Every structure is written in C-alpha cells, then in structure tokens.
Amino acid sequence: MNTPSSEPQLKIYCEDINKTFIQKGHMEVPVIRNISLEVEENEFLVVLGPGQCGKSTLLRIIAGLETPDTGYVALDGFPVTGPGPDRGLVFQGYMLFAWNTVMGNVEMGLKLRGVPKQERRAVAHHYIRLVGLEGFENHYPHQLSGGMKQRVGIARAYANSPKVMLLDEPFGQLDAQTRMFMQHETSRIWEHEKRTVIFVTNNIDEALFLADRIVLMEGKLPGRIKKEYIVNLPRPRDHENPDLLELRALITSETELVL
Amino acid sequence: MGGSSIANETVGVSSGREGITFYQIITNTYLLYTVSLISFFLVWDRVAAWQVFGDSLARPHIVALKLYDLTQIKFAGTNLGGHIWASTQRVLIGFSLASFFAVPLGLFMALNRYANAIVKPIFDLFKPMPPIAWVSISILWFGVGEFSKIFIISIGTFVPCLLNSYNGIRLIEPELYDVIKVLGGSRKDEVVQVSFPASFPAIFAGLQISLSVAWTCLLAAELMNARDGMGFLIKRGMDTHQPSLVLGGMILIALMAWLSSLLISLMERKLCPWKRSIDNL
C-alpha cells in the first residue's frame, strides 16, 4: 500500500514523557519517567516488560486516552491531542460490543464516520476474512472463543484503516497454545497489510517472534526504557532458531526478576 | 500430557454410549419434576382431607371447582374474567406509568452528574420506604378509587425501575467508551452505541423486579379496599370463611404474575438477542 521510501519515515515520536497518577489519599504514583521513543513507518515495535511497569499507560498515552504530564506524542510530525481514528487500539480484555455481531463490531469505526452501509460492509468483510473469521459475521461475541474474540478486536482496529496499530497485551487472556497460534496469525496479517505497530507484552517469546525491535522496560514503577534490541531475523520465525535463542538469553540476562 | 488428555476424552465418550440404566431413569429430571409436583398436591390434599387446619384448607379439586364456578356466575358484579382483568388493568397502568418515567430518569441520572446531584438525594430518601407503607396515605389523599391503587403500584415500581437503569449504565466497563473514542466517535456516539445497548439487560432486570413489586402492591391495595379484582376475591374469601376462594385468588395472582413476567422475558429475548442465555432457570 505504501511505496517504500529511500529512508525510513518517522511515524510516532514520543518526547520525554512523564506521567504520575494520583491515587486515593493523594498518594502520587509515578508511572512513566522520561520516556522518549521513535517508531518508523511499518515498523513492528514490541514494548516488553513485566506487569505494572507502565507499558500499558505508555500505550494509552500514544492512543490519546491519557495525557502526559510533560512531554508529547507526535504522529507524522503532528502532536497528538486526543484519541483518533488514525491510531487503532486492541485491548487486552477484547472490549467487544456484546450487543453487536462480528460484522457490527468490525464496521463500527466506519459507521461512526458516516461511511455508507454498502461500502463499510465491504471493507469490514475484507478484514473479517483477513483475520480468518469468514462465516462468523452474524455471530455475537459470546458465541466466540477467546482467540476468535481477539481476532474481531484486531479486525475492528484494522477496518478503521489507522496509520498505527496499538496492541495492549492482546493475547494475555489466551491459553498458551492459542496464544502461540495468534502470534503466527498476527505475523501473517501484518505481512499482508503492513502497518506501524506498537505491541505491548510481558511475554519474551511473543516479543521475539513478532518484533523488528524490542524496547525493554524496567521491571518496576516508574516505567523507564531500559534497553533496545533489534531483531533482524527472517519471518515467519522459528522459536528454536539459534540466533533467536541467543537474543532471548541476552534479554533474559538483562531482565531482573521482580515479584 | 497430550496423550493422556486424549485418553480421557475417549473414556468420557464411551461411558455416554452405554445402555440406559436404572440409575439414569430415576435421576431423569422430568421424572423428578413429575414426582415432585404429584407429591406436593398429594400432601396438600391429605393435609386438607385430614383437617390439619380444621376446615380452613380446601382440597385442590375444591379450589379448582370454585374457580370454575366463578367463571360461570357473576360474583360481586362480574365473573372471574372481570376480576382478573380489573387487577391486571391496575398493574398495567401503574407499571407502565412508572417505567415510562423511571427508566429514562435513571438513564439520565447516570449519564449526567448534575441531574444525578439533584435527583439522587431525594430518591435516596424515598428508596428505603417499603411501597406498602404508601397504602394508607394514598387512601387519605385520593380516596379508595382506582387512582389510589394505581398510585401505590406506580410508587412501588418506580424505585426498582430507576435503580436498575441507573446501575445498568453505571456498571458499564469504562474501556468500552475508550473503544468508541479510539475509533473516532463523539460523546454522543458513546451514549448511543455503548450506554444504551449495554444497559438494556439491567433495564429488563429492573422491569422484572418492578413487575413482581407491582403485583404485591396491587394485592395490598385491593386487600385494603376494592370492589373487584383478585385481591378482592381473597379478602371476600377471608371475610366469609371460604378457603377455596382465598386459595383460588392466590393461585390466580401467582399465575398472572408469572404470565406477565414471561411476557417481559419474551420481549427481552426479542430486543436483546445477544444476551447470553443464562437466565433459563
């Protein structure tokens, strides 16, 4: 879809972001400290870190659902001021509309923007097929398995043709086998329709399987970036690949175990 | 691991294919339903026949005959159908009136914090009051006519209707609104696409509770003072010592309450086809 330019284009730019939450009892909890980040066009960036390290908050700031206390996020050079259809978000808890069918969920973004029914149905159908849910258009979310629900979540974000896809631990609620299968699917879908992706996870194997680049977060609050790793391996990847295993050992050695 | 789980499945399948055993027959749910109901009526009949409560408990077939008789003759001006309709009409009017105002008000309160700040304190004041407490004051205010009965029913049904539609919106997962925001929707889109549909099951739950409250209020109102209706039949049965009439009235009210609740369930199934069918009990 996008013509490859000679030099990589900067898509997302985060400049020195800080965020502190005020909890009940006026206790200040610093969640993100001095995070700066650059994401290139069509890059698959994985933010890796354990639970409670501020990575989801970072994603919500990029989505525009939270405002940083200092610093800013820019998309294509323009500062982000709030949520918008140029950034699609896939939620850990699926967050499907239980009262809408698969079709109704996937076409929601287009519907909100006033795209005529025929047209949005065609687009939605394309993405339903892309995520492998053809034939389930008229099913309701409660009739689907966890993996299928998240396929709907991915199709719903994709159908809105965002410039950037933000995925917040999308497979966190799935069993190990489905999770691995969904990683393959994500890789396949992404290669089919390239987008700039920021994918948040706490699973190192998931990160290695999907990422062009991994950003490792500190293991505790406030969230900071600890290190970055380029994963320059051909796709689809093999979890047993020696280069991948070597990188895995390196990342593991630099990840502190915190309870 | 994988091998053992497959083996387990095989065992599970084969045990289901064995012939019907004696154990399966006596644990058949429908058989147990039948046994349960027959035993109930048998115990009722014996307790009545042996006069455990003296002559104050009618045998089941006497109650049935009494109800049949009432369909044939005029009792206090109208036959059985007339009495049923008199009560049903009161419930319908009172219930419709209350839900017509309470449901939108509950939604509005949940969506607008200023409306909430104004209405909630007054509502919280009235909320804990049992609806039947209104019976006497409404007779003082409105006399013993139709209006006071409808008033009592409306007051009683108003509270659960409002409370449930209010909670229906309050308990919506906030992240669902984020979905609309991220997809490019406005605040209006959030209300139309999330708040309203998501609160539907809670609204229906409220209607169900309201309806059962409505029948309770109706009975209270009719027992106090009425010239027709099922509550009147019960009252008259009590005053003239006719246990068959009292029991007949009780059964009729239960039947009508059950039917009206069934109607709401059907409506809900029609309007919320997406709702998980967990309420089949």
Structure, described:
The complex is a heterodimer of chains A (259) and B (281). Chain A is an alpha/beta fold and 259 residues long. Chain A has two domains: 10-86 and 162-253, 3-Layer(aba) Sandwich (Rossmann fold), CATH 3.40.50.300; 97-160, no CATH class. Helices cover 32% and strands 26% of the residues of chain A. In chain A, the strands form two sheets. Chain A has a six-stranded mixed beta sheet, with helices on both faces. In chain A, strands 2-1-4-5 form a four-stranded antiparallel beta sheet, covered by helices on one side. Chain A starts with 9 loop residues before the first strand and ends in a 6-residue tail after the last helix. The model of chain A has no long low-confidence stretch (mean pLDDT 90). Chain B has 281 residues and is mainly α. Chain B has two domains: 2-57, no CATH class; 67-271, MetI-like fold. Helix content of chain B is 78%, strand content 0%. Chain B is flat. Chain B starts with a helix and ends in a 10-residue tail after the last helix. Chain A binds chain B through residues 63-65, 82-85, 87-89, 91, 93, 95, 97-101, 108-109, 112-113, 140-142, 156-157, 160, and chain B through 173, 175-176, 178-185, 189, 193-194, 197-198, 200, 272-276.
CATH topology of the largest domain in chain B: MetI-like fold
Low-pLDDT residue spans of chain B? 1-15
Helical fraction of chain A: 25-40%
Number of strands of chain A: 10
Architecture of the largest domain in chain B in CATH? Orthogonal Bundle
Number of helices of chain B: 12
Helix-residue proportion of chain B = over 70%
Looking at the structure, the CATH topology of the largest domain in chain A is Rossmann fold
Q: Write down the Rg of chain A.
A: 18 Å
